[in-house]
Amino acid sequence: MQTAPLHAKTVPAASPLLAGSNPAQALLLTENAALTNGPPLLFQRLTAKEREEVLREGQKRVVYRGKMLFSQGTPHDGIFLIESGRIRVFYIAPSGREITLAYWNAGNFVGGPELFGQGQHVWSGVAATNSVVVHLTGKTLRRLIAQVPAFAIGLIEGLTFKGKCYSALAQMLGTRSVTERLAHLLIHLADTYGVKEEGAIAIGSAFTHADLAHMVGATRQWVTISLKRLQEQGVLKAEKAKIVVYDLEALHVMRGDR
Amino acid sequence: MQTAPLHAKTVPAASPLLAGSNPAQALLLTENAALTNGPPLLFQRLTAKEREEVLREGQKRVVYRGKMLFSQGTPHDGIFLIESGRIRVFYIAPSGREITLAYWNAGNFVGGPELFGQGQHVWSGVAATNSVVVHLTGKTLRRLIAQVPAFAIGLIEGLTFKGKCYSALAQMLGTRSVTERLAHLLIHLADTYGVKEEGAIAIGSAFTHADLAHMVGATRQWVTISLKRLQEQGVLKAEKAKIVVYDLEALHVMRGDR
DNA sequence: GCAAAGGAGGCAACTAATCGACACCTCGGC
DNA sequence: GCCGAGGTGTCGATTAGTTGCCTCCTTTGC
């Protein structure tokens, strides 16, 4: 629960929320079809005036990379709109095993699982990069829903989208082997962050093996072994903080869609 | 997609939706805390007049046990309100592996993943018991949301609840072993459907081993073996169509919460 | 410059879980 | 009565994935 002080010296990049850019909403173990079909971001449904109104109602908060925004088991009230940055939402089981539900980007909201306060967080949120969020309490949310109809619609679509993401994640975890899931994730990363590089695709991700493991629901070691195996097969090459995919087709075959 | 003809002779029990009963909303691999904390059913938020209005807008459909309500890959439009009965929502991977997302009871809605039409079903729905559903198209939904505010709130809460269910399922599948998941499910079944019986709890479920396997994301054989193992340990006794739990505490230990 | 921390990578032992196959049992229909 | 379908019990082979531990390499901070 250590959030960074607001008087900090270095301030993250300015609000893309008001600018209205539309990057991918989230990153998780799922075909990106579900993501590209996502609804417009919550804020894009609003007029400039409405946006200002919403932002005015909330309390701005800066969260530095690695700091917790909210923690599993603590009481919650309302949601956090992500103004800039990226929040990783994850769950830790009693056994210590951890699963990343998703990385949510600017324009979406995190918190929950309830909208209107009461209850405890059943997962945690940590800043994956320096981020700025706007906290809207349950009480404020109720008022905004009544006052700004477009905000209500945006919330409904956001919730529908989250439902899609989580059910897709459950589908993956319930029916695919770890190997298939890793292939899946690599394809997704290549599609989303890949840069073409003379026949190959370079994923310049900042993800560690442990990060990848948490996304596919496996151990760090297994990811290391699998990546090594793929490297031996000539499918890809893992360099530090960079994965170069040579044979995307092979990954598709591993995933089961030829 | 074989729905039963409306002129069928045997008609399922009459609508508990209008009666306003409140059974568990759903059955799935999750601690029942998430379920008991669920919001009031969609219809309980409405006045009798509003209920009638909603029911009038939709098209009633009878689905017999084992018949598909909707199928993965087919285009969809709107949602199905469950008036009576129980619908199993499941996903089949290309490999043939199947995972049950949830059994939804009367009072909830299924379909999706989108509310307002467009797109394809990414999962299937089959009647677990003879059921009556009301189909509301995307167009109708939009109109109802605008006309009946309580309906909009009910939808939001329903969506939030589904999000909770699916994320909890992902948490389970991502961090627990099959054994732990089975223990979890058994505890949940005992809590929900269990009948006290001289120190033991009898679960008179109609679930086959395959049904249980689909819920925990495992194979039928593994469930058979695990149940046998538990029986040898004296934790429970599996009779046909009935499981008697002697040592609930042991299941809690297996699950990891002492 | 050094020390500490965290990540990458490797490896051996182990077990949880799958896969495929088959035999059996029970129930309902003809 | 026989037959077929669907559910259960079991076996052996195989693999997928975990656990625990250890080394090396970077990065960062002092």
Order of helices and strands of chain A, N to C?
HEHHEEEEEEEEHHHEEHHEEH
Spatial gap, N to C terminus of chain A = 45 Å
Query: Major sheet of chain A: size, sense and barrel closure?
Result: 5 strands, antiparallel
Number of strands of chain A: 13
- Share of helix among residues of chain A? 25-40%
Structure annotation, total helices of chain A = 9
Oligomer state of the chains in this structure: homodimer
Strand order of the largest sheet of chain A: 1-6-5-8-3
Largest interface: A-B, 39 and 39 residues
Mean pLDDT of chain A: 79
Annotation keywords:
homodimer, 258 residues, alpha+beta, five-stranded antiparallel β-sheet, four-stranded antiparallel β-sheet, 9 helices, 13 strands, elongated, disordered N terminus, DNA-binding
